[in-house]
Amino acid sequence: MKPSDYWALVLVFALLAVAPALAGPFYTRLLATGILYGTAAVGFNVLFGYTGLLSFGHAMFWGAGAYTVAIGMVKMGLSFPASLALSLLVVGVIALVTGFLSLRHTRIYFAMLTLAFGQLLYAIALKWRSMTGADEGIYGVPRPLGDVVLYYYLILGVSLVVLLALLRILKSPLGLAFRSIRDNPFRAEVVGYPVNRLRLLSYTISGLATGVAGSLYAPLQTSVNPEALYWTFSAAIVFMAILGGSRVFIGPFIGGLLYVFIQDTAMGVTEYWLLATGVTLGALILLLPEGIVGYIWRRLGGRLE
Predict the structure, then answer these.
(1) Which three-class secondary structure state does DSSP give residue 223?
(2) Residue 203 CB neighbour total at 10 angstroms
(3) Contact, 38 vs 257, CB < 8 A?
(4) Rounded mean pLDDT for each run of 10 residues along the chain, 305 residues in total
(5) Hey, where are the domains in the chain?
(6) Alpha-helical runs (H) found in the chain
(7) Bridge-partner residues for 139, per DSSP?
(8) What is residue 228's DSSP assignment?
(9) How high is the pLDDT of residue 271?
(10) Are the beta carbons of 217 and 228 closer than 8 angstroms?
(11) Distance, CA of 297 to CA of 305 (rounded, Å)
(12) What does the alpha-carbon distance between residue 239 and residue 265 come to, in Å, rounded to a whole number?
């Protein structure tokens, strides 16, 4: 039987649901981080793998979501649900504005514009001390439900809802329109697709999914700092998507989980963990250009998107 995106999602989340019973608090928290990274990578892949646009600024959505929740709960005294709703509004506005301006260009120019907007938000977070805490960030963000295991299951549930929504979109006629733009934007325009508007819609959906993951990350860590907005995290999201496989829906999610554990293992082995992480990820991508999940998916008879 050929693999199915829905069944793959169910299997992965079923395994993640029982994982805390087999792991201690440290690995539960690490897994929660991996789930959020994976969700952000799947969100990014709506734009990259399915619409054919490379963004180097997705950390701005992750960081904007994290900062909005932290500011809402710590500075404004809002509840977690209210802060989460506010973060979605803020991320949505940022996605619409930066998308409208960036999508006037494509290819490398689009990538550079998204990078520039991401660095602009990073500079604001670094300089606006009264609101963002500057380079020290915001600490003491309350964790909903208190216990890390209970919050893990909240993260797991919200991430599942986000991924199911994205999968439903990508399996719909809208998702087919995204792929037609990726494969041949000129032909898509000729047959009547409003290419620029669809690209903006894809960019906004992608940013919102990444922003939800970032919003959940701040309470998990009970803090947020400007590194959440820095361009290196945007590059890490690109790595996650390619590592897992950008042509399989679940691929970037697995890539996010693997990225966290590769990084953690490298940090425990050597002080040069950044070098070790980079070499490991680079070797995996060179050996398996379609990604780890992409390779397994194709071997099982599945079709790459």
Answers:
(1) strand
(2) 26
(3) yes
(4) 80 93 85 96 95 93 96 93 96 96 85 94 92 89 89 96 96 94 90 92 97 96 92 92 91 93 83 77 80 86 76
(5) 5-229
(6) 5-22, 25-48, 59-70, 80-102, 107-127, 129-132, 148-171, 173-183, 185-190, 195-221, 231-244, 251-269, 273-287, 292-299
(7) 223
(8) G
(9) 77
(10) yes
(11) 11
(12) 17
What is the Cα–Cα distance from 38 to 213, expressed in whole angstroms?
9
* 170: phi then psi, degrees, rounded to nearest 5: -75, -20
DSSP state of 73: I
Cβ neighbours of 188 (radius 10 Å): 19
**Which residue, among 200, 217, 168, 289, has the nearest Cα to 32 in the 3D structure?**
217
Burial status of residue 149 (CB atoms within 10 A of its CB: 0-12, 13-18, 19 or more): middle
Residue 219 has a pLDDT of 95
Q: What's the pLDDT score for residue 2?
A: 56
Task: Give the CA angle between residues 12, 289, 231 to the nearest 5°.
Answer: 80
Q: In whole angstroms, what is the distance from residue 83 CA to residue 39 CA? A: 19
Distance CA 73, CA 58 (A): 23
CA 175/CA 30 separation, integer angstroms = 32
Task: Please state the φ and ψ torsions of residue 184, each to the nearest 5 degrees.
Answer: -160, 85
> How high is the pLDDT of residue 149?
92
| C-beta separation of 54 from 238 below 8 A | yes
Count CB atoms within 10 A of the CB of residue 2: 8
